[in-house]
Amino acid sequence: MTASDSFSDSAILQVFDALIFQQSGEGFVCRGELPSWCPPPGARSLTEFHPEVLLTQSFFLQHVIQEAQSWWASDQSGVWKSGLWSEPDVFGEEAVFEAIAVREKDIPYLIIQRFGPDMVPVQPLLQKAREEQLSHRQSLQQHEQREAQLGSQLARSEQERDDVMAVLDRLGLGTILVDATDRITFISRTAQDLLQREASDIIGHSLQTGLPWPKEFSALLHAQEELPDDCRGPASVVLDRKGAPSLSLDIEMRDDPRDPLRKILFLKDVTEVHELRRQLVGQTHFFRLIGKSPAMRAIYEQIQDVAMVDAPVLIQGETGTGKELVARALHEGSPRKDRPFVAVNCAGLTDSLLGSQLFGHKRGAFTGAIQDHEGFFEAADGGTLLLDEIGDMPLPIQTTLLRVLQEGEIIRLGESRPRSVNVRVLAATHQDLQALVQAGRFRSDLLYRIRVARLRLPALRERREDIPLLSMAFLEQGRAAIGKLGIHDIAPTAMQQLLRYPWPGNVRELKAAVEFALIHCRGTNIQPSDLPPEFEESGHPVLSHPSPVAARDERQAIMEALQQVNGRRIQAAKLLGMSRSTFYRRLRELDIPIES
Amino acid sequence: MKQKKICLLGGFAVGKTSLVRRLVSGLFSEKYLTTIGVKIDQKMVTIHDHSLLLVLWDLYGDDDYQKVRASYLQGSSGYILVIDGTRPETIDVAIRLHQTARQVVGTVPYVLLLNKHDLAEDWKVDPATLGELSRQACLVAKVSAKTGDGVESAFSALAEAMLNGS
Predict the structure, then answer these.
(1) From residue A242, how far is each of A201, A211, A215, A239 by CA, in Å?
(2) Which of A398, A391, A374, A387 is nearest to A426 (CA)?
(3) Residues of chain B falling short of pLDDT 50
(4) Cβ distance A211 to A196 under 8 Å?
(5) Per the CB < 8 Å rule, is B66 touching A126?
(6) Chain B residues within an 8 Å CB radius of A113
(7) Would the CB atoms of B38 and A123 count as touching at under 8 Å?
(8) Which residues in B lie closer than 8 A to residue A137 (C-beta atoms)?
(9) Which of B42, B52, B10, B35 is nearest to A127 (CA)?
(10) Do B36 and A131 touch (CB under 8 A)?
(11) Which domain holds residue B124?
């Protein structure tokens, strides 16, 4: 038996079911039994099949033979494997093969194995490993995408939160977020500044114990937490701060819209407001108004509120209550304070004269109009115009005024060109304008236009507690003006009389009475005897509306006063302790010719 | 008739077998079937009136489980580097195989294919970032074995480059 026979006859090779070539000269010959897959399915007959053809026609086997030749030429022991390959065989059948080169007793053999589709042992393992790798990568990619999305959402949310916080900080509003277990989860920069605490010292602490509230306030906050959202109001607390003035805070608690168990606290520094309020409570003067009675404090607060609103205001009050002073306070407390304040009395003037005064006229517009004239509206441009005694304004002028208020334009008499004016209009009256409307003497539409805001001044008899303060203020003003600096007080008995008097002429009458007393006083204190004669009857209330007899006396007094000052009406009004507007009104009511 | 050996190189599941199948039989399968060993196919192409038989050696994907034998590249007239445009990590495999090919067959023409261009939403690879790999290639193309976009022209470009170089 030759070596080759022994190899090819080996029973082991039968088991491999392989095609075996033995190198013979320059070529190869097939040895042993043909494997079961030779010829392959589809071969037309056994005689057509020549296994050696495989070696020349297979692109891969050509490569294999080159590699195997090198290996055979080397002294390496063992076997050389080509690795798996697949290609159509000579009959066009796709198959998987592997070639193995061996050397048996120096004779080279090439063994070719063929694998069916399910016979490559590594295939399922590799398939599974790579599928898992792809699947893992896909889920990783999905996680990365989700992470990127969440990151983007987070960035947007943080941006929105920062924007909101910036707005809240800009508004001076501090914010604190509290979770369902009452622990602080967030505190804004403004809140940290207000409370003089760093976030790191506060986050995680209880709302009741983690912040510098007084115990009572903590209890109040706790109670608020129990209330429904719409039942909570702002809670005020004053905090003592190291090295800084006390801090007044208004704290408003709201449910988190997304989770009612979480709370949002808004902190607003109201120290300045509280200070102003405190000052207002003890205030005796407000601009040029004097008084500390509750009624006047209420007026001061109303003036503060209304001054900043650029809307018409109707100031109502009896004569002498200080309507023009209120108008000036409204002007001086408004953004228009650096622009003109013009007061015009609407009583006692004819239609044409009042129209000319208010709206101006062109030269030649009427007899006596010798030059162009700017009206009060133009004079007050950018500022404030007080229309005093507006209830006495003639109806034609009311009509024009209404148009001016609506259009913001005036037309001078004799002109057709409208002129824009920017004027805040204040109106004052002692009359009941609603009654005038019903009587047909005042336009209802004008009334609605001018009473966007309203202030009603109290009569002096409604704030008698201010009489000592007012009296002393007038004493101080008057003694310097009159030159009686030695007078520095009012005797208690005289003050009693002042307090009992009904003051139909209100503050103006009080001022005149004090000046009268100053003139007559010969000591250092004003005595009852220094007061005007009407105070002798101070035990008997004076009628607020003059009786016919009183009217006769008043008419006589006015005539005498006019005569005394040679017809100069303003001086006559001053002599009588009346405002110019009241004086004119009384002239008309008492049928005293204006030119008299 | 001239014949040229072309190797398809790239990481696993970049679509080498699908590109060959699209070229040879015009078919595509969504199912991923990993290639074991080397798969030999042929494609006759005509370049400027010259018939050319492309012998396509679709080599198994190179990864930790299977390393491509350098000897398989011997005798190649050109090669195709395939990158999965949705998996940037396949660029590194392509670079490594490119270096291997250069060592074995020297400077022969190759094309660089960014496959799976149909998956535009998941696309991750910017051709501008491929550096030397793209500069030395005779063609860099976004292709899709699924739709067939760019496949035939890519093989033709390589065939033409091989003919011009021979």
Answers:
(1) 17, 15, 19, 10
(2) A387
(3) none
(4) no
(5) yes
(6) none
(7) no
(8) 87
(9) B35
(10) no
(11) 2-165
B61–A130 CB contact, under 8 Å: yes
What residues of chain A lie within 8 A of the CB of B34, using their CB?
123, 126-127, 130
Q: Quote the CA–CA distance of A70 and A58 in Å, as a whole number.
A: 19
Chain A residue with minimal CA distance to B74?
A63
Q: Which residue of B has its CA nearest to A119?
A: B36
Please name the residues between 106 and 145 in chain B that touch chain A, using a CB distance below 8 Å: 122
Place of tokens 């005689």: A47
Q: Is the dihedral of CA A129, A132, A133, A134 positive or negative?
A: positive
Closest A-chain CA to B65: A126
Instruction: Identify the CATH number of the domain in which residue B61 sits.
Output: 3.40.50.300
For B40, which of A60, A133, A134 is closest by C-beta distance?
A: A60
Which residues of chain A neighbour B32 with C-beta distances below 8 Å? 130-131, 134
Max Cα distance, chain B (Å): 44
Work out the average pLDDT over A396-421: 92
Number of structural domains found in chain B: 1
Q: Which helix (H) or strand (E) holds A241?
A: strand A235-241
Cα separations in angstroms, A207 against A202, A239, A363, A550, A579:
9, 15, 76, 71, 61
Cis peptide before A39 (omega within 30 of 0): yes
**Helix axes A569-576 and A580-589, enclosed angle (nearest 10):** 100
Tell me, yes or no, if B39 comes closer than 8 A to chain A by beta carbon. yes
Which amino acid belongs to residue A556?
Answer: Q
Question: What's the CA angle centered on A157, arms A155 and A158, to 5 degrees?
Answer: 65
Which stretches of chain A sit within 8 Å of chain B by CB?
58-60, 63, 66-67, 83-87, 96, 98, 120, 122-123, 126-127, 129-131, 133-134, 137, 141
Inter-residue contact B59 to B72 (CB < 8 Å): yes
Q: Report the residue from A83, A87, A122 with minimal CB separation from B40.
A: A87
In tens, the pLDDT along A248-307 reads 888 999 999 888 889 999 999 888 877 776 666 567 788 889 998 989 989 998 998 899
**B120: its two tokens:** 């535009």
B67 touches A: beta carbon within 8 Å: no
Query: Torsion over CA of A203, A204, A206 and A207, rounded to 10 degrees?
Result: 30
- Tell me the percentage of chain A whose pLDDT exceeds 70: 89
Residues of B in contact with A141 (CB under 8 A): 122
ipTM of the complex: 0.89
With CB atoms and an 8 Å threshold, state whether B55 touches A59. Answer: yes
Give the separation between CA A19 and CA A34, rounded to whole angstroms: 6
CA separation for the pair A85, B58 (Å, rounded): 10
Q: Which residues contact B155 (CB under 8 A, 6 or more apart)?
A: B6, B23, B43, B45, B54, B80
Q: How confident is residue A40, by pLDDT bands cut at 50, 70 and 90?
A: low
Distance CA A497, CA A527 (A): 10
Domains of chain A: 3-120 (3.30.450), 171-275 (3.30.450.20), 282-456 (3.40.50.300), 462-589 (1.10.8.60)
Place of tokens 């004053």: A238
Q: Give B131→chain A minimum CA distance, Å.
A: 25
Torsion of CA A535, A541, A546, A548, to 10 degrees: -100
